[in-house]
């Protein structure tokens, strides 16, 4: 299913991203709390918000797999690279070699299809690292 034309990565992977961790880091990069996300997604059938929080926590902890429908909803709340997520899910299921983990920034989980954009400039990779230039040189005054 997944097309690969990838050689072994020449960069150093310092974080083993899982689908849940990827979602968690993307959420945090967007500066959303789990409760914020729970409040913004709809569920079928209607589930109380507190239950949605726990359910999202389980997804981020990789205790439950994230369904295509949920991915669809999460992608409306914060930016996701769906191909990265699919690759991580395939690795988690043992269907893809972990050596083919996509390159993901270890701080913000951006990827080449989903770079950080500040002003009109997209981030780039720091040579040989799983780190993007936006995280390597954070703008001063951007208190987290
Ligand atoms: Zn980054
Ligand atoms: Zn970036």
Note the main attributes of this structure:
about 140 residues, mainly alpha, 434 Repressor (Amino-terminal Domain), two-stranded antiparallel ribbon, 6 helices, about 40% helix, binds zinc ion
Description:
- With 144 residues, the chain is mainly α.
- The chain has a domain of 91 residues: 434 Repressor (Amino-terminal Domain), CATH 1.10.260.
- It contains 6 helices and 2 strands; from the N terminus they run αααααββα.
- It has a two-stranded antiparallel sheet.
- A hairpin with a 2-residue loop joins strand 1 and strand 2.
- The radius of gyration is 16 Å and the shape is globular.
- The protein starts with 18 loop residues before the first helix and ends in an 8-residue tail after the last helix.
- 25% of the residues are buried.
- The structure holds zinc ion (2 copies).
- The site of one zinc ion has 8 residues, from loops.
Secondary-structure topology with pairs:
Layout: H1 19-29, H2 34-40, H3 49-60, H4 68-77, H5 82-92, E1 117-118, E2 121-122, H6 133-136
Helix pairs in contact: 2-3
The chain binds zinc ion (2 copies).
One zinc ion binds at residues 105, 107-108, 110, 116, 132, 134-135.
Mean pLDDT score? 88
The rough form would be described as: globular
By CATH reckoning, the class of the domain at 12-102 would read: Mainly Alpha
Structural class: mainly alpha
What is the architecture of the domain at 12-102 at the second tier of CATH?
A: Orthogonal Bundle
Terminal CA distance: 38 Å
Which segments are poorly predicted (pLDDT under 50) over 5 or more consecutive residues?
Answer: none
Radius of gyration: 16 Å
Q: Strand arrangement, largest sheet?
A: 1-2
Bound molecules: zinc ion
SS field, number of helical segments: 6
Order of helices and strands: HHHHHEEH
Helix content: 25-40%
Counting DSSP E segments of at least 2 residues, the number of strands comes to 2
**CATH fold topology of the domain at 12-102:** 434 Repressor (Amino-terminal Domain)
Largest sheet, in brief, is: 2 strands, antiparallel
Beta-strand share of residues: under 5%
